[in-house]
């Protein structure tokens, strides 16, 4: 497959819809906080709660969403379930977003189109 074919596939309506769905999933502050907590290491629910300050039911609900979407994976370790990023590129995406914000934060903050 040529570079042009790959680019054409990435702009296909189905791919654009999936990309939009991915970014909608990442747009929730609680889910981003959980992903941030998992960038450095895997954690169990209580560790995520302690790291994020979110309530346990909130963390559990968002972890379920992140698991279903394939952004987080889990493994059993003793009586605990440990959660981790399913793909290290999620951490790269978060870091890339932070770098982009370093140069665009004023514009993003002033943007009225994407307020709650």
From TrEMBL:
Q: Which GO terms describe its molecular function?
A: DNA binding; DNA-binding transcription factor activity
Q: Which domain of life is it from?
A: Bacteria
Q: Where are the transmembrane segments?
A: none
Q: Name one Pfam family in it.
A: HTH_5
Q: What keywords does the record list, in alphabetical order?
A: DNA-binding, Transcription, Transcription regulation
The keyword Cell inner membrane belongs to this UniProt entry's keyword annotation: no
InterPro entries, sorted: ArsR-like_HTH (IPR011991), HTH_ArsR_DNA-bd_dom (IPR001845), Metal_resp_trans_reg (IPR051011), WH-like_DNA-bd_sf (IPR036388), WH_DNA-bd_sf (IPR036390)
Instruction: Give the SMART domains listed for this entry.
Output: HTH_ARSR
According to UniProt, the name of this protein is: ArsR family transcriptional regulator
